[in-house]
Amino acid sequence: MAIPAQFIDELVARSEITDIVSSYVTLTRKGDRLWGLCPFHNEKTASFSVVAERQAYHCFGCGKGGGVITFIMEIENLPFVDAVGLLAKRAGMQVPETGQDESHRRRRESVLALNREAARYFHSQLNSSAGEEGAGYLYEKRRLSKGTVRRFGLGVAPEGWDNLILAMSELGYDKRDLLDAGLAVDNHKGGIYDRFRGRVMFPIIDLRGDVIGFGGRVLGDGQPKYLNSPDTVVYNKSRNLFALNIARKTKQGRMILTEGYMDTIALHQAGFDCAVASLGTAFTEEHAHLLSRYTKELVIAYDADSAGVSAAQRAIPILERTGMKVRVLAIQGAKDPDEFIKAYGPEAFARLLEQSENHIEYRLGQVQQKYNLEDDAQKVEFLRECAELISNLNSPVEREVYGRRMAEVAGIAADTMQREVELARKRRLKQAKKKKERRDLTPAVQMQPADRALRYENVHAARAEEGVLRLLLLEPELMRAVDETLTPEEFTSPMLRKTYEIMQTRYRDGMRTQLATLAGALSPAEISHLTKVFDQPQSREESEAAMQDYLKIMKLEATKRGGEGELDPLLALRQQYKEKKSFGGEPHE
């Protein structure tokens, strides 16, 4: 780890995890833990916990966990060095400039600086002869004001293969810089050319106000119609939303999700400063979690065509699982929000917003459109599909209300529909129960790391190895005795061996061995699994006896392996049989 371990120790000591996490998640105390809705996966019942005594968080739903640095890495989508930098700034500390991490930080800062200069260049071109077509598109065709164009930093990339390259080279940026930022493309002959040419440009700005990427709409009939920056060291399209940097400050009490840049910009210009858009990609769980941090109500305002309807159908369950109130806008008389506002004005759009359907009504309406209810066979299929959809609702009241409504639509008795809904719900719950029972009957599968790359080859030995690490994390003073008797080579799991080596080195150097300090040396997946290990019940009153038991198992397993670390052939067959039996004949997960 390039950043000095002593600095990480001090940073972790100054960064109280409950303070950090509570700035992102609403936490409620229950016993010795603080609980909240997990920011990393969709849920309605809190399974995300923080234990101040251990300075660790753990979600019992998705399995993510770790210390304060890992939390910032995950929630801000930052590499280790940048997460350390963010925490250091908060704690009033200066990160030492040294090693590989410093090189990465400088590369990231260079890309951000280049993006900023590129955005300025594109914006300046609107006032040049080369940008006349782009200016005409924004000001005349799209009827954007100069204030709106300036607010969003819109611009134009002129036709030509190297306009941006030449402009940026004058500022000292080279080929490598432009490729790193995704602003240029390698022609595989040693040269490069501008990625964006003949396009109106939309800078993508993150929550810290940095330009992290661009979207470009073609001027004319070229393809693709929209071209976006590739993922770079500063940009990930699945974890960012266009205009969220502005919309997060809205006072309107909700947000509006659109399909594209222009719909969002048109809504902002019309006074709806709560609009955002996904960035040339399907709506993801990361997008939903990001939105749920800033609003409790969301209106989907996708295009009125079949593609927009399908996209809304896919987004609804993702959004609904976050606990947000989800509504869907039914646009009539126009194909999208931008066209509607131009035709009917902002006041009409505001009325349309108030009439938006909740997501259940919208989805049931879409189901109804698929069937001819004059045909008995189609009526039966309609009711079955509605019953399946309604059975997913957790509220008995909602199930009854919507069940009765669909019964009226189809002309059948409400009680009949109610029975169909409950049968569908029982089938779903039964399937979920069987799935859980299968998992519960295979404990060896349950204790395997979620990441298949970290899977244990010897579960029996790994259970003891986990026990050793758990006790060392709970009671670091036990390392004094263990350090003299246990070598890293006695671990069968590479991940657990590496963890022990790190803790052993830190102990010998007189530094902390708590989970939070390991973030720079272990991956988020490894840290999450160790958090799960750390969170398992362990009696501290009998810790020394438990440690001896774990060590005996490890020593015994070590004797089964030969000088090259291979298991004796006969013992290997026996071990294989035990593992197969332990897994119930099922494949590893």
In words, what does this structure look like?
- There is one protein chain.
- With 589 residues, this protein is of the alpha+beta class.
- The chain folds into five domains: 5-91, Alpha-Beta Complex (DNA Primase, Chain A), CATH 3.90.580.10; 100-235, Alpha-Beta Complex (DNA primase DNAg catalytic core, N-terminal domain), CATH 3.90.980; 244-364, Dna Topoisomerase Vi A Subunit, Chain: A, domain 2, CATH 3.40.1360.10; 370-440; 444-582, DNAb Helicase, Chain A (Orthogonal Bundle).
- It is 51% helix and 10% strand.
- The chain is built from 26 helices and 16 strands.
- A five-stranded antiparallel sheet has the order 1-2-3-4-5. It has a five-stranded mixed sheet with strand order 13-12-14-15-16, with helices on both faces.
- The radius of gyration is 29 Å and the shape is flat.
- The two termini are 31 Å apart.
User: How large is the radius of gyration?
Assistant: 29 Å
Mean pLDDT: 87
Q: Total number of helical segments?
A: 26
Q: How big a fraction of the residues is strand? A: 5-15%
Structural class: alpha+beta
Sheet bearing the most strands, described? 5 strands, antiparallel
**Structural shape:** flat
Number of DSSP strands?
16
Measure the end-to-end span.
Answer: 31 Å
What's the level 1 CATH class of the largest domain? Answer: Mainly Alpha
CATH architecture of the largest domain: Orthogonal Bundle
CATH-defined topology of the largest domain: DNAb Helicase, Chain A
Question: Unreliable runs, pLDDT <50, ≥5 residues?
Answer: 575-589
Assign the CATH superfamily of the largest domain: DNAb Helicase, Chain A
Overall helicity: 40-55%
Strand order of the largest sheet: 1-2-3-4-5
Tally of structural domains:
5
